[in-house]
Design goal:
The complex is a heterodimer of chains A (213) and B (513). Chain A is an alpha+beta fold and 213 residues long. Chain A is built from 5 helices and 11 strands, in the order H-E-E-E-H-E-E-E-E-H-E-E-H-H-E-E. Chain A has a domain of 144 residues. In chain A, strand 2 and strand 3 form a beta hairpin. The longest helix of chain A is centred in the N-terminal third of the chain and has 17 residues. With 513 residues, chain B is mostly beta strands. Chain B has 2 domains: 125 residues, membrane protein fhac (Ubiquitin-like (UB roll), Roll), CATH 3.10.20; 364 residues, membrane protein fhac: a member of the omp85/tpsb transporter family (Porin), CATH 2.40.160. In chain B, a hairpin with a 2-residue loop joins strand 23 and strand 24. The longest helix of chain B is centred in the N-terminal third of the chain and has 11 residues. Chain B is elongated. Classes of the chains: A alpha+beta (213), B mainly beta (513). At the A-B interface, helix 1, strand 5, strand 6, strand 7 and helix 3 of A face helix 3, strand 4, strand 6, strand 7 and strand 8 of B.
């Protein structure tokens, strides 16, 4: 019980800093029929999703995947008026010593080859002139915010479900019926839970609106 | 421990290319050829993503979109495992020596998670380095082991029947590094002030291999010893289960269970098992109960053969679970069904069958931050089932003290909330619950946090338990004769690195009543 109370206290404290998105200034531009956005220098961007360990892993030869989910919502609501998913993958060619990047978004996919991990990081995390919404979905004078969830190496949902089920298995079928059919399990000291991604970053723009021409 | 698997280094590189072509893969063109974007390194800062030298347009992103150099896995090195056998780790990997794949292949992405999913490691890192020939690579898997001891349950509490009880169920998920789970529990319960009663204790030992040699088959085995003292009411008004109104009979159970599971798919599992149990019970010659000082005694059926008897059963089960998160579920469905058949034809002393099933469905609300769940569970016991295989009232009413390793620790009557039938049976052959639960997400963390998530939940519903023969006739109105009542619960569930905690009103009531 004491451990549980401590866990709650820890959780409540931790909740203050992770669930809240980081507020950043962003540059929104009306480009033809689309609204595009760019991160602003000095605001942080999404580069911090790569810590030292993940930065080094760019050169491991195994793929590093960045999935960026973007939503435009009316300020004060949770209902998206536009959504966008970007996926960026980097692999290091151990024989040719180069980084091969694939940058994907609906309607666009391209491959880039760079020589250094710093360049790979820059290309993976650059957000410049990204189309996020059709302008007709954004009425004039209405206030919106853009939310972004950046996941590094997310696990596909079906794999995650399989793994979590495997991990939640007990240590064999015993005499007690309660845990299987009517109750719930409680275990302590051990919980090798699988997170949904290696690292997650949540970012939100400051409120913006389209001024009438 | 340090292990490796190797591929013949003389494998010609041409074979790599051939295999790649056969697999429909395309080798990466050298710089200057093919994709114009690859001709020169990109300058920084990068140009806008939506412009420039785009590849052919695709309308959707998908997982099978592989690229990068085609490599042949020449060798797999596992580093850092001191307790876990290398073979156990290699079996979990979705890649093998000799595989030819793109460097971006999703099997390489998932390899880390598959090994983490064994539950034996705190961290797993995958890296490739050059092999003996161009195009061949050595995959290096660095693991950091973690403790695999688990405390499954803690038993403690106090009730009128048992002034105190204490016990624990512990296990190790990785016995001798073989990937086999072992677990066991022991509980001791004081029992006093009950005629013919005695202290109780029970012990259990379990072994399980969830995936025998990496196959979809699993196996389990369990042995249980119970030295019990089971109370039954011999006098007093209905629901007055103070020790003075009780008498106990002594019994002993020794049983062995063996089972097998088969994963039909990642979501569906079948199970089968056999059980053999020896029972010894010292029963009163004619167990009776006096309803009042003036009424005649009525016979009490203890549902056990006096002296020695045996229970031999075969069982089958089905489990389908589509919940993405079984600990803090906000979406998905779980269906469980099991049937167990006991027969004198198998050498047992009892002919009976039990059929249990449960259904849970979760509807996510507000972007899965909230969820409503409907949970239905029920069972029916047919035939001459021994007492311990019948449905106990604590199986359906979670506001009562649950049985622990088969021991009954409380005789408290359920809370009478609805004003239905005053005296609910302690054991029944027909029982179930129907619950609606509302869960609110308190927080979710990911990555390397040690606290993963928490939910606040409220649940309410009906539970019922009856002997079918009692349903055939009644001497009161329909409502007053219904063997059902209300279940209420609320609390928090916290999912942390050191375990899953559930702190609820019902759990607290179950330790003190």
């Amino acid at each position: 019980m004491i451990a549980a109370v401590l866990a709650i206290a820890t959780a409540a404290r931790a909740a203050d800093d992770e669930d809240k998105p980081e507020i950043q200034r962003m540059l929104f531009v009306e480009s033809g029929e689309l609204l595009t956005f760019s991160t602003v220098r000095g605001e942080g961007g999404i580069g911090s999703v790569f810590d030292v360990k993940r930065y080094d892993a760019l050169g491991s030869g195994t793929p590093s995947v960045l999935v960026i989910r973007i939503q435009i919502v009316a300020d004060g609501t949770d209902t998206p008026v536009a959504e966008q998913v970007l996926q960026r993958t980097a692999v290091y060619d151990v024989w040719d010593e180069r980084y091969i990047l694939r940058l994907e978004q609906p309607g666009s996919k391209k491959q880039v080859i760079v020589k250094t991990p710093a360049e790979a990081l820059t290309r993976m995390t650059a957000l410049q002139d990204i189309p996020v919404a059709r302008l007709d979905a954004l009425p004039y004078d209405k206030v919106f915010v853009m939310r972004m969830v950046v996941e590094l190496n997310p696990i596909p949902k079906e794999v995650l479900a399989e793994l979590r089920r495997y991990l939640s298995q007990g240590t064999g079928g015993g005499i007690d019926r309660g845990g299987a059919l009517f109750g719930s399990f409680v275990s302590i000291f051990y919980n090798p839970k699988m997170a949904e991604a290696e690292r997650v970053l949540r970012i939100q723009s400051r409120p913006f609106y389209r001024a009438r021409p | 421990m340090w292990g490796r698997l190797t591929f013949a280094p003389s494998m010609p590189v041409a074979l790599v290319a051939l295999a790649a072509v056969a697999a429909g893969a395309h080798a990466e063109p050298p710089p200057g050829e093919g994709d114009p974007d690859s001709a020169v390194p990109e300058p920084a800062p990068p140009p806008p993503d939506a412009t420039g030298d785009d590849a052919p347009v695709e309308t959707a992103l998908h997982e099978d979109n592989e690229f990068g150099p085609v490599v042949l896995i020449e060798q797999i090195d596992v580093i850092g495992n001191t307790a876990t056998q290398t073979e156990v780790i290699l079996r979990a990997l979705p890649i093998r020596v000799g595989d030819v794949l793109h460097a971006s292949d999703k099997r390489l992405r998932e390899a880390r998670f598959k090994v983490l999913a064994l539950g034996f490691f705190r961290d797993v890192a995958l890296a490739m380095r050059r092999g003996s020939q161009r195009g061949q690579v050595i995959v290096e898997l660095r693991v950091v082991e973690r403790g695999t001891l688990v405390l499954n349950r803690l038993w403690f509490g106090t009730t009128d029947l048992s002034p105190w009880w204490v016990g624990a169920d512990v296990g190790d998920r990785n016995l001798f590094g073989l990937g086999i789970a072992v677990g066991g529990g022991f509980i001791y319960a004081r029992q006093e002030d009950v005629a013919r009663g005695r202290d109780q204790y029970a012990a259990e030992l379990r072994l399980a291999d969830p995936s025998v040699r990496g196959t979809p088959w699993g196996a389990s085995w369990a042995m249980t010893l119970v030295r019990g003292s089971e109370p039954f009411q011999v006098q007093g008004s209905p629901g007055d289960t103070r020790p003075v109104n009780l008498e106990a009979f002594r019994y002993r159970r020794f049983g062995v269970r063996a089972g097998a599971t088969y994963n039909v798919s990642t979501l569906t599992r079948l199970s089968m098992g056999v059980r053999a149990e020896a029972l010894t019970a010292s029963l009163p010659i004619a167990p009776t109960r006096f309803l009042s000082d003036t009424d005649p005694a009525v016979a009490v059926d203890l549902h056990l053969d006096p002296g020695s008897s045996r229970v031999i059963t075969a069982s089958f089960g089905f489990d389908r679970d589509t919940r993405p998160d079984p600990v803090l579920p906000h979406a998905g469905t779980r269906v469980v069904a099991s049937v167990e058949l006991g027969s004198t034809l198998l050498g047992g002393s009892y002919d009976f069958a039990t059929l249990f099933g449960s259904y849970e469905h979760y509807w996510p609300l507000r972007s899965e931050k909230h969820a409503i769940a409907v949970k239905l569970a029920g069972g029916v016991v047919v035939g001459d089932a021994p007492r311990f295989d019948r449905i106990h009232i604590a199986d359906v009413d979670r506001m009562l003290t649950p049985r622990a390793v088969g021991l009954v620790l409380s005789t408290a009557a359920p809370l009478a909330i609805l004003g239905t039938r005053a005296e609910k049976p302690t054991y029944g052959d027909l029982g179930g619950t129907a619950t609606v639960e509302y869960a609110v997400r308190l927080f979710r963390f990911s990555g390397e946090r040690r606290v993963y998530g928490g939910d606040l939940f409220f649940g309410t519903g009906l539970w019922g338990l009856a002997e079918r023969r009692d349903l055939r006739a009644r001497d009161t109105g329909l409502y007053a004769s219904l063997p059902i009542d209300l279940y209420l619960d609320a609390g928090v569930r916290i999912d942390t690195d050191i375990g899953t905690f559930e702190i609820t009103v019902a759990n607290a009531l179950g330790r003190i009543r």
